[in-house]
């Protein structure tokens, strides 16, 4: 099901033509992507392939798949970008983004105090000139996929 005006639904409908950064892993009802509007390399987003707006709307199988993928993404981020830990957040309040999505955010060891914890969102929604370049997001996508897929097998 696709909902009119829903950004994630629009992208989910085009799975076959999306660049690597928009389909790091697609399986078990989920799509793992690199956030587009962030200055933080490795800021990932887990998006269900069907339109739901609340975590409570997930089936048991979707919730289990979410947990497995979030765990595998976290381990891959630790290896690839060298983060100290990851933050996992579900917000979904922006116009066009009510579709459930969970942010898997690498907290780098050298992150300034004013961007730790919930303040990490300062690194999202930044001006386009500060976004992680598409080529870098695609390269990270390939590295992350190479670690995540075997962990889920």
Explain what you see:
There is one protein chain. With 153 residues, this protein is an alpha+beta fold. The protein has one domain (7-152): HIT family, subunit A (2-Layer Sandwich), CATH 3.30.428. 30% of the residues lie in helices and 16% in strands. The chain is built from three helices and five strands, in the order H-E-E-E-H-E-E-H. The protein has helices spanning 7-12, 60-80, 134-152, and strands spanning 25-27, 30-34, 44-48, 85-90, 102-107. A five-stranded antiparallel beta sheet has the order 1-2-3-5-4. Strand 1 and strand 2 (30-34) form a beta hairpin. The longest helix is centred in the middle third of the chain and has 21 residues, at 60-80. The model has no long low-confidence stretch (mean pLDDT 94).
């Amino acid at each position: 099901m696709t909902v009119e005006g829903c950004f994630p639904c629009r992208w989910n409908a085009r799975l076959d033509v999306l660049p690597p950064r928009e389909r790091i892993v697609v399986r078990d009802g989920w799509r793992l992507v690199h956030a587009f509007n962030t200055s933080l390399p490795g800021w990932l987003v887990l998006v269900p392939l069907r339109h739901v707006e609340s975590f409570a709307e997930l089936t048991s199988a979707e919730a289990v798949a979410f947990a497995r993928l979030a765990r595998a993404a976290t381990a891959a981020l630790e290896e690839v970008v060298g983060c100290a830990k990851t933050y996992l957040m579900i917000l979904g309040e922006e116009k066009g983004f009510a579709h459930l999505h969970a942010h898997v955010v690498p907290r780098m060891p050298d992150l300034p105090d004013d961007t730790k914890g919930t303040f990490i969102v300062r690194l999202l929604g930044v001006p386009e000139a500060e976004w992680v370049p598409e080529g870098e997001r695609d390269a990270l996508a390939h590295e992350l996929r190479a670690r995540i897929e075997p962990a889920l097998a």
